[in-house]
Amino acid sequence: MKKNVITLAAAAAVVAAPMMVSAADESSTKANFFGYSQITAAVGKGKEGNTADSLRFGADSIRLGYQITHGKVWGKLQADFNKTDKGDRIGIPEIIQDAVVGYKFNDAAKISAGIFKTPVGMDFGNASKQLDITKRGLESYLVLNRAAGLMVSGRKLGGFGYDVGVFNPAQRSGAVDFGEAGDGTAYAGRVMYDMNEDLHIEASYGVSTQDSGSAAEDYTVFDLAGYYKMGAMTFKAEYIFGSNVKGKKDYDESVWYVHGGYAVNKMNEIVLRHYAADSETASGNSTSLGNTYLGWNIFLAKKQKDARIQLNYVFASGDTDSFTGIVESIGYTDNVLLAQFQVGF
């Protein structure tokens, strides 16, 4: 009953929004198209036992989309053409990354409805074209990922901001493989503080519940993160803890990373990032995995992320031959050299 009340209240807010204001003037309509391609290369095993370790090519994100506003009404559609073979786990094909509409009352209250990123995870909240390294990090497998739902957000509240949302079960998450829309539900919330563009701190929490007839556990996740910029240097850190991974009681997993970047000039940036992951099963079996990225970002356009080359060497450490955590799916258990060439608009 509680779930139904929350969902109904959020839906009523979305429906009521257009009734509270007059129609948008045509002159207030703005449309922005965007897209980018990320072509990759790798040398080295990357995974324990991988024999295909010579030079190989591939692609990460192949995106195309648009954003449009009609006064205070807005919408966004984004597709990733590198995910056309991915399974449909949430009722919407994974080629659709974002299909969201909304209404912005003011800075303190903006409503989003559709499929979009749930508000858990700082680095996950960045678009893939904005990442400091070539790949999503280990922590991204523990977030709730994208889901279909409703969210209310606020920013510029004396430096503070918030997001609160209710969603269908978060089955695009690497930590969730359960829940049916209309029975199971996901909830997520985030609070943050920003000081100009130099300091950002955020904390978030999320839950994806089991169906009512299941005896398995709900998945819960907590994330704490922040960054600080000082001149040419950037520092970042994030910690995430997931409990009852894939609904298994006392199967817990955590990841933290620290990051440092230095802009040598407008064209070159050097980055260093270290990930540490820990996994513990209900039986008490504990394993750990480390991935350390040494990187060089080369910017080739006035808008840096419109054209760039990223070079990373990844050092694997820890229990590389016995790590049991789910984040291994997105991480590396052997050393590898990665390159990515990104061009977009």
Radius of gyration: 21 Å
Determine the CATH topology.
Porin
Percentage of residues in strands: over 45%
Distance between the termini: 46 Å
Element-level helix/strand string? HEEEEEEEEEEEEEEEE
| Major sheet characteristics | 16 strands, antiparallel, barrel
Count of alpha and pi helical runs: 1
Looking at the overall shape, the CATH architecture is Beta Barrel
Q: Would you summarize the structure shown here?
A:
The chain is mainly beta. The protein is 4% helix and 52% strand.
Keywords:
single chain; about 350 residues; mainly beta; Porin; 16-stranded antiparallel β-barrel; globular; disordered N terminus
Characterize the structure shown.
The structure is a single chain. By secondary structure, this protein is mostly beta strands. It has one domain: Porin (Beta Barrel). The chain has one helix spanning 2-16; strands at residues 29-43, 56-70, 73-80, 96-106, 109-117, 146-157, 160-167, 186-195, 199-208, 219-230, 233-243, 252-263, 268-280, 286-299, 307-318, 336-344. It has a 16-stranded antiparallel beta barrel with strand order 1-2-3-4-5-6-7-8-9-10-11-12-13-14-15-16. The longest helix has 15 residues, at 2-16. The radius of gyration is 21 Å and the shape is globular. The N and C termini lie far apart (46 Å).
Fold blueprint:
Elements: H1 2-16, E1 29-43, E2 56-70, E3 73-80, E4 96-106, E5 109-117, E6 146-157, E7 160-167, E8 186-195, E9 199-208, E10 219-230, E11 233-243, E12 252-263, E13 268-280, E14 286-299, E15 307-318, E16 336-344
Antiparallel strand pairs: 1-2, 1-16, 2-3, 3-4, 4-5, 5-6, 6-7, 7-8, 8-9, 9-10, 10-11, 11-12, 12-13, 13-14, 14-15, 15-16
